[in-house]
Amino acid sequence: AQSVTQLGSHVSVSEGALVLLRCNYSSSVPPYLFWYVQYPNQGLQLLLKYTSAATLVKGINGFEAEFKKSETSFHLTKPSAHMSDAAEYFCAVSGRNTPLVFGKGTRLSVIA
Amino acid sequence: EADIYQTPRYLVIGTGKKITLECSQTMGHDKMYWYQQDPGMELHLIHYSYGVNSTEKGDLSSESTVSRIRTEHFPLTLESARPSHTSQYLCATSSLGQGPTEAFFGQGTRLTVV
User: Fold this and answer.
1) Chain-chain contact of B105 with A45 (C-beta, under 8 angstroms)
2) pLDDT tens for each residue of A59-68
3) Which residue of A lies nearest to B108 if distances are taken between CA atoms?
């Protein structure tokens, strides 16, 4: 079985500060890992995905994530938060032919 | 433009009513999914399909049913709505592939049962 754990249901940062959203995964097979963002009353939008080609993955809107097998982690970062980054963020894992399994989500607030 | 369409976007309905949430896609994808999203954000897979006439139950027990008669259409039906069914329902699709294939989401249907 696969699962992800997102540490912190709510993260608050100041505008311009570093954003760090944590995700740890559990998988018995090489995992495929994803980060999604959800704005109010919207569906989920893909930020980035881990393809095993590179451990550091760059996504949209200046976000990136680093796959660390030794730590079973796939944390999401952005060097400088913008007000428009305020949203819900979901980490997800899947196997080769299995549906995505999502974490519980982290709400990011950005303070002016 | 390739997209995923969910209708209605918002629905308020009385207890005991039968409802069908529609999901259609022009993505050309074989895989389709229904996720239920709690008010507290967590998403749970309730049904999925990898092709026509193929449906599976997800991790979360659900009183809903689905059908997949056409590749592009994956409706979800509640025979008798209850207040516990109040939630947001998200439809998603993905392509068949060997690598990490991401899911694409519709905008969701927010259901309130009163």
Assistant:
1) yes
2) 999 999 999 9
3) A43
